[in-house]
């Protein structure tokens, strides 16, 4: 019989306790080959995510675009920070990630940012 293996995939220091008025919502995001993902948007709370398969081209306000590959985890603060890109980096296969978001019950998973706001905040983009 083999032993159970526990591996830390990511750690986010300074995370506060979650008030009982909030929920932890876990979602599965599957992106078809070549998908650009959602337009620029915000999430209602912080997100802890893990790429299950494929690779995701990822960009948050204030950070350079990067590629997050299967087996890698990431943190997104949510709130006021704009999520510019969450696209499938691969043109020939599906990519998928699982994410847990901390937020108030009933809020949408994401809210699209208007073109006017994108223009007003363009100086904050890396």
Automatic annotation (TrEMBL):
Pfam families: Cupin_2. SUPFAM superfamilies: RmlC-like cupins. Residues 28-84 form the Cupin type-2 domain. This is Cupin domain-containing protein. It comes from Lentzea rhizosphaerae.
């Amino acid at each position: 019989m083999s032993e159970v293996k526990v591996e830390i995939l990511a750690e986010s220091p300074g995370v506060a306790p979650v008030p009982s008025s909030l929920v932890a919502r876990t979602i599965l995001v599957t992106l078809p080959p070549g998908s650009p993902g959602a337009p620029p948007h915000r999430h209602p709370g912080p997100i802890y995510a893990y790429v299950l398969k494929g690779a995701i081209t990822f960009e948050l306000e204030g950070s350079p675009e990067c590629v997050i590959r299967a087996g890698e985890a990431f943190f997104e603060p949510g709130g006021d920070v704009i999520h510019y890109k969450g696209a499938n980096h691969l043109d020939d296969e599906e990519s998928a990630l699982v994410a847990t978001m901390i937020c108030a019950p009933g809020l949408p998973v994401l809210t699209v940012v208007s073109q006017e706001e994108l223009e007003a905040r363009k100086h904050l983009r890396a």
